[in-house]
């Protein structure tokens, strides 16, 4: 009896025969990255509850960093122990895969999150309020913006140190998301990382109404898409009689005829399979911000506190694409001829819409949001390749892109005027004259976004386009290159604006950050350049990690 | 032993690096440092030569691979060297003449402020030229080929404050680009045909390729040779190149670089042997150029330009011989070596004369210099006798062989080529006698220079006369030494192969005919310039004379056909670029911008609209998936 059947019985038969519940077998060591992060999140809640306010910031920062670093070490240990290759298997009764792509993506997510936590902890950018340093987050999330409660909270020097456990919870969900090996685990992971993100989006210290608006929009649309996804899960269960990936794949292949006699009427009904598959796909495409499910992206990216935006843009995308890859490569490879044309369409309009609409954007954060949509399209081109090279190129692209994104948003936090961050592009004019280092750093990230050689963006784009072309998607590559050309326009325009325009008299100032943000930006630049100059080692690494366990 | 080949190239390269990067500190010692590095490569060449001589005739090749240069997939380019009798001959000529001319330049450039740089460039030239001849593949040869082009450009334009020198340098560079294009296309063709461009495999397997392809490769190689060796139709740069300092003219534009084309054709002999049409093109170019250069040389009053015409003509002989195939390769190279001696000697003599005459170059303002510059007179005179083919001197042996080989080509072709070569010999005798008479004999026609001073001709310093003497010795004896027992033929034969042709006329007849035309040429020159006083300003002259003074209208032709045509082409391209290309580009940009403006309106900020878009998207996604299954 396979794991599939036993898990299935856990969910469906328990009421009928309670005495037959088998004790689940959990491989704690193999799940340790997730467990460490979630455990630390719980500890973080206890810190909030029991430690005095003045030590919470340091305690939370330390706890988060240690947890993320330890989880990363666990990932490395697992990979070194052969779980990425020979010993890859589905752990926890087939609910969570421990294999190459999962470990690679988990490692990426953990590193990105660690760097993101640095930017969360930044407390030197805003002037101190009432003698206490403040970070990017609201003094008290529950206080009405502009109300008395808020004033009191600011005066009392409150800070929302809950963001650290929230991030850890989100990271915990993201770690499971690309490793989920059955549809229910996928859904639970989705909710586990989405809910903390909704809350984080609402917590901006400045422009709080915009922040709360973005959080509500994100929540509404996220819930909407979750409903689609869950409905898709139900339909797929109806089709296959199981929710495990391998079980569904077996039924799609026709190697297994029937898993559950109770579902004899619907099992093998292709309409259920196609509709269910499309709905699950849609739920994932929403998370990665593909057109036409992208519309939340600009509003949320703009409204959320910038460190949260950077974290979301980087880590969510990694997790989302990881889950998408696993779904398409493990569950639906038998349906390749059905989903590939559809995904072609999605990739094409995603690349084009992202690139074209970005051309007329005037806000840096919105610009980067549309840029992230275009990049989602580029990554989709690699996903569609359905070759081992396709997987490894997407893994590489995700690793490269997440650090560029995080670095770019970190730079955005530095450019400030009296109202907080000066995100309107007109205020960036002539920044290169006044703050050459900051402008040059941002230029490096923009060049990487544009895919200029010697940056990681070029290596990544080259890898996905090559995989797509070899996978028979030549037309997609053409569209990709055209979109890249359009996208290059607005990236370079920002560089021109920074370096070749006269600075404005009352322009923004560049805040001097603490070592935390500086480190985050420096890591971003270093990764961008290293992956750009010598990408082969990391491409090989991604190539070794490119096989999904079934 | 093999490792020394690389060192041969590295020594002058190091010299160039030291001199060009060394800064002002080396200004004083620079000339001697440069000469030292040149002498070092000469010493290495001597050691290598001794090593080769110590081996059997069939075993006189050395191969060495320094490092792998560009390994990409199936594409392999190594920095590897191949030294055989052919390249050894060149190496000795280059390092020998090169060292002598370095020495000469120490005196000649003694008063030039930028002489350190001059010697740096000279060393750079030596390194590139040596690389050209010891490379074991065409790509590396191309590196040397471009390197000598660069050095030539830098040295022609060395006196860049003179606009004429700067223009001449640019002209040389641009005309050479045309030839270089030919070489690069030839290399690409080789790579597509043979999958490699190393000499060994390409030349061994040459016959495997179709004749059409070989003809194409051969013609492209010929184009390259025309550029570098100033052959018609790419000859126009050589006359202007005389703007460079005279040692440069002697080394680069007489003895070595301009013979690179002959090397290229001889080295690629296997290709030309299998492509008769390409060979016909080669002999045609050679025959036309040998007459073209000779005619130009007759009309020039500038001593260096007269010698430049002569160079062009003599290389025409070599190209002609190389185009004859195995019956001519050895004699092409033999003439190349003897020419290296006497032409370098003649140029150095001309430089010595200019040195004594306040840099005057117009031969009509010389006259009667033999008493004032005896060493120059004697060495120049020996070079003169050698080039016209006076019996017993170098040119006699080498040129005579080429004329014989031309007749031996057989058939009508043989008669035409042989006739052209004979006619060329007559004209050579004429113009060289003219140079000799105008410069060293007759009345003094010295004119005051722009400062109003009459020149005070004097013999040049020892550093200048010694190289002239050495080269004169070579001019006298080299040809004879090479011909004893056919020693040169036997030395080169393993590389180039050799075949006796079937001459319709006996060797003796050819020699006799050559002597007759020689006497006729000298006699006419004597009648025109020896017996009568020479006017200081040139007479108007016949139509042919005037055309020849203008290099047979080469620049006018280039200007009308190429420059005007190019300008028209550029103008129309610019028009197309502005109206069509820019129109499309700007139109695309504008439409993307417009589209962007319209599409961003969809992003209206209402969550309900977003939800509708998602719902619609999901519906389309499902419909499309189902549709895919349906069709």
Write the layout of secondary structure elements.
The complex is a heterodimer of chains A (550) and B (631).
Chain A: H1 3-12, H2 32-50, H3 53-80, E1 89-91, E2 96-98, H4 100-120, H5 148-156, H6 163-176, H7 183-201, H8 208-240, H9 245-253, H10 270-288, H11 296-303, H12 306-331, H13 336-358, H14 364-384, H15 388-414, E3 415-417, E4 420-421, H16 431-434, H17 436-450, H18 456-470, H19 474-500, E5 509-510, H20 515-533, H21 536-544
Antiparallel strand pairs in A: 1-2, 3-4, 3-5
Chain B: H1 3-21, H2 30-53, E1 62-72, E2 75-83, H3 85-108, H4 115-134, H5 138-156, H6 163-194, H7 199-204, H8 211-228, H9 237-240, H10 246-255, H11 260-267, H12 269-273, H13 276-299, H14 303-323, H15 329-356, H16 374-388, H17 394-408, H18 411-440, H19 462-483, H20 487-496, H21 507-530, H22 543-549, H23 554-599, H24 607-630
Antiparallel strand pairs in B: 1-2
Helix pairs in contact in B: 1-2, 1-4, 2-3, 2-4, 3-4, 3-10, 3-15, 3-19, 4-5, 5-6, 6-8, 8-11, 8-13, 10-15, 11-14, 13-14, 13-18, 13-22, 14-15, 14-17, 14-18, 15-16, 15-17, 15-19, 15-20, 16-18, 16-19, 17-18, 17-19, 18-21
Number of helices of chain B: 24
Quick one: how many beta strands of chain B?
Answer: 2
Strand order of the largest sheet of chain B: 1-2
Quantity of strands of chain A, as a count: 5
Separation of termini of chain A?
16 Å
Low-confidence stretches of chain B: none
Radius of gyration of chain B: 29 Å
Radius of gyration of chain A: 23 Å
Order of helices and strands of chain B: HHEEHHHHHHHHHHHHHHHHHHHHHH
Helix content of chain A: 55-70%
The number of helical segments of chain A is: 21
Q: What's the overall geometry of chain A? A: globular
Strand content of chain A: under 5%
Shape of chain B: globular
Backbone structural class of chain B: mainly alpha
Task: Report the portion of residues of chain B in β strands.
Answer: under 5%
Q: Main sheet of chain A?
A: 3 strands, antiparallel
CA-CA gap between termini of chain B: 74 Å
Organism (chain B): Streptomyces hiroshimensis
Domain NADH:quinone oxidoreductase/Mrp antiporter transmembrane (chain B): 135-417
Pfam families (chain B): Proton_antipo_M, Proton_antipo_N
Transmembrane segments (chain B): 6-23, 35-53, 86-106, 118-135, 181-202, 214-234, 246-266, 278-299, 315-334, 377-397, 417-442, 463-484, 504-527, 609-628
């Amino acid at each position: 009896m396979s794991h599939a059947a036993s898990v299935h019985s856990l969910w469906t038969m328990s009421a009928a025969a309670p005495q037959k519940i088998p004790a689940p077998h959990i491989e704690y060591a193999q799940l340790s990255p997730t467990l460490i992060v979630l455990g630390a999140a719980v500890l973080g809640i206890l810190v909030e509850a029991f430690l005095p306010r003045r030590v919470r910031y340091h305690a939370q920062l330390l706890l988060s960093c240690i947890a993320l670093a330890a989880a990363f070490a666990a990932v490395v240990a697992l990979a070194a122990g052969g779980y990425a290759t020979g010993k890859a298997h589905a752990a926890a009764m087939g609910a969570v895969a421990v294999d190459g792509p999962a470990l690679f993506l988990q490692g990426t997510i953990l590193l990105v999150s660690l760097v993101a936590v640095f930017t969360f902890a930044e407390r030197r950018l805003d002037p101190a309020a009432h003698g206490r340093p403040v970070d990017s987050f609201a003094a008290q999330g529950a206080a009405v913006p502009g109300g008395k409660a808020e004033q009191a909270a600011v005066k009392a020097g409150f800070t929302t140190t809950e963001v650290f456990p929230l991030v850890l919870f989100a990271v915990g969900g993201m770690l499971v998301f690309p490793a989920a090996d059955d549809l229910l685990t996928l859904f639970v992971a989705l909710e586990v990382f989405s809910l903390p993100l909704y809350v984080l989006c609402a917590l901006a210290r400045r422009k709080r109404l915009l922040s709360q608006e973005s959080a509500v929009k994100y929540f509404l649309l996220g819930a909407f898409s979750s409903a689609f996804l869950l409905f898709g899960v139900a339909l797929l269960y109806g089709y296959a009689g199981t929710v495990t990936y391998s079980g569904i794949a077996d039924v799609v292949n026709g190697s297994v005829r029937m898993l559950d006699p109770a579902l004899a009427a619907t099992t093998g009904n292709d309409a259920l399979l196609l509709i269910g598959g499309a709905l699950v796909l849609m739920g994932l495409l929403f998370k990665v911000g593909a057109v036409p499910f992208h519309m939340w992206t600009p509003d949320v990216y703009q409204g959320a506190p910038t460190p949260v935006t950077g974290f979301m843009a980087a880590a969510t995308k990694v997790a989302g694409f990881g889950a998408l890859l696993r779904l398409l490569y493990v569950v639906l490879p038998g349906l390749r001829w059905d989903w590939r044309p559809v995904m072609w369409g999605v990739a094409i309009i995603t690349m084009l819409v992202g690139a074209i609409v970005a051309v007329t954007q005037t806000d840096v954060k919105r610009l980067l949001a549309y840029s992230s949509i275009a990049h989602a399209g580029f990554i989709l081109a690699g996903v569609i390749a359905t070759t081992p090279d396709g997987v490894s190129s997407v893994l590489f692209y995700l690793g490269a892109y997440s650090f560029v994104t995080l670095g770019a948003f970190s730079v955005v936090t530095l450019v400030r005027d009296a109202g907080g961050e000066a995100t309107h592009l007109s205020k960036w004019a002539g920044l290169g004259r006044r703050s050459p280092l900051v402008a040059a750093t941002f230029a490096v990230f923009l060049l990487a976004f544009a895919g200029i050689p010697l940056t990681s963006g070029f290596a990544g784009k080259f890898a996905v386009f090559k995989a797509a072309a070899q996978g028979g998607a030549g037309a997609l590559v053409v569209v990709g290159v055209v979109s890249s050309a359009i996208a290059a326009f607005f990236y370079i325009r920002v560089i021109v604006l920074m370096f070749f325009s006269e600075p404005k008299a009352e322009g923004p100032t560049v805040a001097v950050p603490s070592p935390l943000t500086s480190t985050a930006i420096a890591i971003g630049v270093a990764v961008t350049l290293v992956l750009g100059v010598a990408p082969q080692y990391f491409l090989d690494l991604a190539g070794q990690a490119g096989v999904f366990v079934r | 032993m093999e490792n020394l080949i690389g060192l041969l190239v590295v020594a002058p390269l190091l010299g160039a690096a030291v001199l060009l990067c060394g800064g002002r500190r080396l200004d004083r010692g620079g000339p001697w440092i440069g000469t030292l590095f040149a002498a070092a490569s000469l010493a290495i060449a001597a050691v290598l030569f001794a090593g080769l001589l110590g081996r059997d005739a069939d075993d006189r090749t050395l191969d060495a691979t320094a490092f792998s240069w560009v390994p990409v997939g199936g594409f392999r380019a190594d920095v590897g060297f191949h030294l055989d009798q052919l390249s050894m001959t060149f190496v000795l000529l280059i390092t020998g003449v090169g060292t002598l001319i370095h020495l000469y330049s120490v005196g000649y450039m003694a008063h030039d402020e930028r002489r350190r740089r001059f010697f740096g460039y000279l060393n750079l030239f030596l390194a590139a030229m040596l690389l050209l001849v010891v490379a074991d593949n065409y790509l590396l040869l191309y590196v040397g080929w471009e390197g000598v082009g660069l050095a030539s450009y830098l040295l022609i334009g060395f006196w860049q404050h003179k606009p004429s020198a700067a223009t001449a340098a640019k002209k040389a560079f641009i005309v050479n680009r045309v030839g270089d294009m030919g070489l690069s296309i030839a290399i690409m063709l080789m790579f597509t045909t043979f999958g490699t461009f190393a000499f060994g495999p390409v030349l061994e397997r040459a016959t495997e390729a179709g004749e059409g392809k070989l003809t194409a490769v051969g013609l492209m190689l010929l184009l390259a040779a025309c550029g570098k060796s100033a052959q018609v139709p790419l000859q126009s740069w050589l006359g202007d190149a005389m703007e460079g300092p005279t040692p440069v003219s002697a080394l680069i534009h007489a003895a070595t670089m301009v013979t690179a084309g002959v090397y290229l054709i001889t080295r690629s002999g296997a290709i030309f042997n299998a492509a008769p049409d390409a060979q016909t093109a080669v002999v045609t170019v050679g025959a036309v150029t040998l007459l073209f250069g000779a005619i130009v040389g007759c009309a020039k009053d500038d001593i260096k330009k007269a010698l430049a015409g002569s160079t062009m003509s003599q290389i025409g002989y070599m190209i002609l011989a190389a185009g004859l195939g195995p019956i001519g390769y050895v004699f092409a190279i033999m003439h190349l070596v003897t020419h290296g001696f006497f032409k370098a000697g003649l140029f150095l003599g001309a430089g010595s004369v200019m040195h004594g005459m306040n840099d005057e170059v117009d031969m009509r303002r010389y006259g009667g210099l033999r008493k004032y510059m005896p060493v120059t007179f004697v060495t120049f005179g020996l070079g003169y006798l050698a080039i016209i083919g006076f019996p017993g001197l170098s040119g006699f042996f080498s040129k005579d062989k080429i004329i014989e080989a031309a007749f031996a080509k057989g058939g009508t072709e043989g008669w035409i080529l042989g006739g052209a070569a004979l006619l060329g010999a007559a004209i050579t005798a004429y113009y060289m006698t003219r140079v000799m008479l105008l410069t060293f004999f007759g009345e003094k026609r010295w004119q005051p220079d722009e400062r109003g001073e009459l020149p005070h001709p004097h013999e040049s310093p020892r550093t200048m006369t010694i190289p002239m003497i050495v080269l004169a010795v070579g001019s006298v004896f080299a040809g004879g030494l090479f011909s004893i027992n056919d020693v040169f033929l036997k030395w080169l034969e393993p590389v180039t192969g050799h075949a006796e042709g079937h001459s319709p006329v006996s060797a003796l007849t050819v020699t006799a005919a050559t002597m007759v035309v020689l006497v006729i040429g000298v006699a006419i020159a004597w009648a025109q310039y020896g017996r009568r006083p020479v006017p200081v300003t040139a007479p108007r002259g016949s139509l042919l004379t005037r055309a020849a003074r203008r290099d047979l209208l080469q620049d006018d032709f280039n200007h009308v056909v190429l420059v005007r045509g190019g300008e028209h082409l550029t103008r129309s391209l610019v028009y197309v670029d502005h109206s069509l290309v820019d129109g499309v580009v700007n139109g695309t940009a504008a439409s993307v911008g417009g589209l962007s403006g319209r599409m961003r309106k969809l992003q209206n900020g209402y969550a309900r609209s977003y939800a509708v878009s998602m719902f619609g998207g999901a519906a389309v996604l499902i419909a499309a998936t189902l549709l895919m299954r349906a069709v």
